[in-house]
Design brief:
Structural class of chain B: alpha+beta
Mean pLDDT of chain A: 88
Order of helices and strands of chain A: EEEHEEHEHHHEHEHEE
Strand order of the largest sheet of chain A: 6-7-8-3-9-10
Shape of chain B: elongated
Largest sheet of chain A: 6 strands, mixed
Largest interface: A-B, 36 and 35 residues
Helix content of chain A: 25-40%
Radius of gyration of chain B: 34 Å
CATH class of chain A: Alpha Beta
Number of helices of chain B: 24
Number of strands of chain A: 10
Oligomer: heterodimer
Largest sheet of chain B: 21 strands, mixed
CATH architecture of chain A: 3-Layer(aba) Sandwich
Low-confidence stretches of chain A: 229-236
CATH topology of chain A: Rossmann fold
Mean pLDDT of chain B: 82
Number of strands of chain B: 21
Strand content of chain B: 15-25%
Distance between the termini of chain A: 6 Å
Structural class of chain A: alpha/beta
Number of helices of chain A: 7
Radius of gyration of chain A: 17 Å
Shape of chain A: globular
Strand content of chain A: 15-25%
């Protein structure tokens, strides 16, 4: 990794307001390098999820710019935004957001199918991911039969299906018991160790400490602390 | 406002789309019901009322005075079953000529032949005539005309060139007979004076019977009268059922298909109400929980949801009653003219009954989902917040996931299985729309066939009239001042010109005459064909086209009026001569109310009638310019005094009105079905907002979202079409003959077999098209779902 390389995420003076209320984000600037694992901390309503949504292209800033992997995300239309997420973003949620009426394998396959990846190739990739994340025996089951930790592993597998350069995780351990939370924490750390760039939003200081290479803290829509070098970023 | 009222008002106001759908669906159901029931009752009522008030004749019978005496006829009043009788009245057939100039006719115009009856007074036990102008004839030289059929008024004078002495008569009054027993009346002494010194005398008797409500009863009554007089004495009859059919046929023909639309509308109402209220309950589970936690009893919740359906339904009923009355008005419009009474209108009780029945159906349809709402447990309702995501349809999703289809398409195809009840209801609503479209398309095609073939000889591209004032019987050419009379062209010379004319492929000629037909009251129009007319013959229901003299083709209405069947013999008489023809074919045509006998010209010759063609019907070779042919032909005919013009007839106002009504009702029903789909997809996409957010977070594009949503309803549409088309065809095949019955006609089989493969292929697209059209807007909205917000919805 070189320090001169442009950041994978480049957020400049971003603000986001909803109606007449106080801004959810106010003048946030942030750069995230490839290979970093950034933990976004802060109390409820501080703007953590808004920041994540802006990076994912699910929301648009009221001002400023959001560039990810060289792409101005804030300028994308609906379709381009969808293609951007499909190719460059993987998302993991607190409540997994698995589709209950699809099997585990079909959930994992879905992003590849939406992207038009050839069937055989997609199946092979899904099998690899399920095996890598230790849930291959549940491939034919429906998510409701899995434990919370297993469901989050499936969600991670789905997020990684199209080999996105950026993994976004919103409270990935928030709905898990301690054991499952540890399980997911180790998984994210291992992914980052393999070079996966991660942005995770969490209240869980333990999660941030164990798998983030950097943390920022948001309060009332502003970055009040940016702590680099919690753990050295892994060079690719 | 009570708490319950507030909840109902809020519910109605919040779900505006569903409210509009409910208003429209009940509007259509009630409007169609009001038109069908209204026309059925309102059209019959004036006739029945006039029959009762005027003691209308159940049977008007004509007798040959050479075969039976007046005393024998008077004795028929004592035939078992006869409750009243009038007559015998001497009758004559005369063609008056105007002597004085009136507002509508100049002097010297010969009117069509009138049946003139000698009658002392307008009252009596049967057929009490209603004087509409002037007074009754009391002495010689006076005549009373029937109703408003002639453009003459009291004071006008008529000559009777064909009557004994050729007297002049003064019109002293206008009268109306409910069953049209005569065209004019004079005193009995005047009738005797007008009769020729020799030749046949005709009498008329009028009867009322104890039982006269059906055709079978009337046949029995006719047979009883015939049995009471010498054989051959009874020459013709006219039953009140035939009169009623003639007068009400057009209105009654509307009833079967409008009733079908009414039933379809009611079925659609039930389904749409079920969909909407069910969806409302599903989408407001938390609200129901909150209401219950505030102290609403289950019964109050049920009432609230039933009322939320009944409020818009009541508005729809009111609008439907108004629309139904407006649509029925032109159908009933001419009935008041027939009876001279107050304008016919839909009875008030039809409006009330149609509304009450529809509201009852709406209440019952809403009750089931409302009961479900009432039974919801408060704690579960509050904690669930919205209808729990179903776990059904997994197998379908697994299967479609294996199909070589784009994933959004596969997901869309599998989606209906996730909510089978809602999908089935939606499919049923679209199926009703498919039935409607199939039925309407069939009706339009059938009516198109009727339109094309209702007039005789209308398929001939070119018609040549021989001129000289010749035309249909009774027609009178009134020439402009100074225009000389010109003799009719010689038919043989016209035929020679046609044969010599370049481009002529084939032609035939027709002659027309009014003669007597056994069993049919009054005069019967006979068209005699010279040459092969089979290529332009009316469509046959059964039998064959005549191949020689002594054969004839008639309609079912004529067969019924004459009391004969296909294959039977029919005796025609004219001026003491008679001939018999065998009815070899039953045809369909409505010209002259279908009461024309079609036969080779030789039949007329046998009756001593001039059978020289007065019109020729010509078909040029394919590719020949019609305009050029006509110009050239007219040049050749000019010296003969004949004239060629394009064939074909104008469209029928009645059929145009039917087409318009069918189009309107179909459009309304299809719109309602589309709105039903719209409502379902709106509810569905709201229920699935979280799932849609997940899809979008995974990279599903707006186009893919739209594709997924549309595919989910398109599949339903295909199933609905597949089920609806056969039902629509069955409905068409069931209703169309009933319309034929209403006008006393059988329809040729080809008029029913209108569903050709290309038509079916188009109809198959109807269901998916309706479903997709209904889903387009909510699909677009789903594509624009705020994914970030949706993902927060747990």
């Amino acid at each position: 990794m070189t320090t001169t390389a442009p950041p994978l995420i480049d957020i400049r003076d971003v603000s986001r307001t909803y109606g007449e209320g106080p801004p959810a984000l106010a003048g946030v600037s942030l750069g995230v390098r490839a290979g970093e694992a950034l933990a976004v901390l802060g109390p409820s309503g501080s703007g953590k999820s808004t920041l994540l949504n802006l990076i994912a292209g699910l929301d648009r800033p009221s001002g400023g710019s959001v560039t990810v992997d060289g792409l101005r995300v804030d300028r994308l239309g609906e379709s381009a935004s969808a293609r951007y997420r499909r190719a460059r973003i993987g998302m993991v949620f607190q409540f997994f957001n698995l589709l209950e009426d699809l099997t585990v394998a079909d959930n994992v396959l879905l992003p590849a199918q939406l992207a038009g990846v050839p069937r055989a190739e997609a199946r092979q990739r899904a099998a690899e991911l399920l095996a890598r994340l230790g849930v291959e025996r549940h491939a034919g089951a429906h998510p409701a039969r899995l434990s919370g930790g297993e469901r989050q592993r499936v969600a991670v597998a789905r997020a990684l299906m199209n080999r996105p350069p950026l993994l976004l995780a919103d409270e990935p351990t928030g709905a898990l018991d301690t054991a499952s939370g540890d399980d997911v924490r180790e998984l994210l750390a291992a992914l980052n160790a393999d070079g996966q760039t991660i942005v995770l939003v969490t209240h869980d200081l333990g999660l941030a400490a164990s798998c983030a290479t950097r943390t920022i803290e948001l309060v009332d829509g502003r970055i009040v602390r940016d702590s680099r070098d919690v753990r050295p970023a892994v060079a690719r | 406002m009570s708490a319950l009222g507030g909840v109902v008002r809020a519910g109605v106001g919040r779900r505006r789309t569903q409210t509009v759908v409910l208003v429209l669906t009940t509007l259509v159901a009630v409007a169609a019901s009001v038109v069908a029931a209204g026309v059925l009752t309102a059209s019959r009522a004036p006739f029945e009322h006039a029959m009762a008030e005027g003691r209308g004749a159940h049977l008007a019978a004509q007798f040959d005075g050479d075969e039976v005496t007046g005393q024998e006829l008077a004795a028929t009043a004592r035939v078992p079953g006869v409750t009243a009788a009038a007559g015998p009245f001497r009758t004559l057939r005369l063609r008056p000529r105007t002597l004085s100039e009136s507002a509508a006719l100049p002097a010297g115009v010969t009117l069509p032949a009138l049946q003139v009856t000698g009658r002392a007074d307008p009252g009596g036990p049967v057929d009490r005539l209603r004087l509409t102008a002037g007074r009754w004839a009391t002495g010689p030289g006076e005549i009373v005309l029937a109703g408003d059929e002639w453009p003459l008024r009291p004071g006008d004078r008529l000559a009777l060139p064909g009557a004994a002495g050729g007297p002049a008569l003064t019109v002293v009054g206008l009268a109306r007979s409910v069953t049209g027993t005569a065209d004019a009346w004079v005193t009995p002494a005047q009738a005797a004076a007008l009769s020729p010194g020799s030749g046949a005398v005709t009498y008329e008797m009028l009867y009322r019977f104890r039982h006269a409500g059906t055709e079978a009863r009337m046949s029995a009554a006719r047979a009883a009268i015939a049995g009471a007089v010498p054989p051959g004495a009874l020459t013709g009859t006219r039953s009140h059922l035939v009169v009623r059919q003639e007068q009400l046929a057009n209105a009654l023909a509307f009833v079967p298909f409008v009733a079908a639309f009414g039933v379809l509308g009611l079925a659609l109402s039930v389904l749409i109400v079920g969909i909407v209220v069910s969806g409302a309950v599903g989408a407001a589970t938390r609200r129901i929980g909150v209401l219950k936690s505030l102290g609403f009893t289950p019964a109050q919740v049920v009432r609230a949801y039933v009322a939320q359906a009944l409020v818009p339904a009541t508005l729809g009923c009111a609008l439907g009653v108004a629309l139904g009355n407006v649509l029925a008005w032109p159908v009933l419009g001419d009935i008041d003219d027939v009876y001279g009474g107050a304008p016919a209108s839909v009875p008030w009780w039809v409006d009330v009954a149609a509304s009450a029945a529809t509201l009852a159906l709406v209440a019952v349809s809403a009750l089931l989902p409302a009961l479900r709402a009432g039974r919801l447990r408060t704690v579960e309702a509050i904690s669930v917040g919205r209808a729990a995501a179903g776990v059904r349809g997994r197998t379908a999703r697994r299967i479609t996931g294996r199909l070589p289809l784009p994933r959004p398409v596969g997901l869309g195809l599998a989606h209906p299985f996730a909510r089978p009840a809602r999908s089935l209801t939606t499919a049923a609503a679209v199926a009703v729309a498919a039935v409607t479209v199939t039925f309407a398309a069939g009706m339009a095609l059938t009516l198109g066939a009727v339109q094309s073939h209702r007039m005789l000889d209308s398929t001939a591209p070119v018609v040549v009239g021989t001129g000289g004032g010749q035309g249909p019987p009774g027609a009178q050419v009134v020439r402009a001042p100074g225009q000389p009379d010109r003799p009719a062209a010689d038919p043989a010379e016209v035929a020679a010109v046609l044969r010599a004319q370049e481009g002529t492929r084939r032609f035939y000629g027709t002659a027309r005459a009014e003669v007597g037909a056994a069993g049919v009251a009054g005069r019967t129009l006979v068209t005699g064909y010279e040459g092969d007319a089979s290529w332009a013959a009316p469509d046959l229901v059964a039998g064959t086209w005549p191949t020689g003299p002594g054969q004839a083709v008639v309609t079912r209405r004529f067969l019924d009026a004459a009391g004969i069947g296909l294959g039977d013999r029919l005796t025609l008489t004219e001026a003491g001569r008679r001939t018999t023809v065998r009815v070899v074919g039953e045809a369909f045509f409505t010209e002259n109310d279908g009461m024309t006998v079609l036969t080779p010209a030789g039949t007329l010759t046998a009756l001593g009638v001039d059978a020289g063609p007065t019109s020729f019907y010509v078909q040029p070779y394919p590719g020949v310019s019609e305009d050029a042919y006509l110009a050239s032909l007219n040049k050749a005919l000019d010296d003969l005094g004949a004239y060629a013009h394009p064939g074909g007839d104008g469209s029928s106002d009645v059929i145009a009105a039917m087409d318009a009504l069918i189009g309107t009702l179909t459009l309304l029903l299809v719109t309602v079905a589309g709105l039903g789909v719209f409502s379902t997809v709106v509810l569905d996409t709201r229920d699935r907002v979280h799932e849609l957010g997940v899809h979008k977070s995974l990279g599903m594009t707006p186009r893919q979202v739209v594709g997924m949503v549309l595919t989910s309803v398109a599949g339903i549409g295909v199933v609905a079409s597949t089920a609806g088309i056969p039902l629509g065809i069955a409905l068409h095949h069931g209703v169309t003959p009933l319309m034929g019955d209403a006008v006393g006609m059988d329809l040729p089989g080809a008029y029913l077999a209108v569903y050709a493969p290309p038509v079916l292929a188009l109809l198959l697209l109807g269901g998916p098209a309706i479903a997709v059209a209904g889903a387009l807007l909510p699909a677009g909205r789903a594509a624009g779902t705020d994914a970030a917000g949706a993902l927060r919805t747990e």
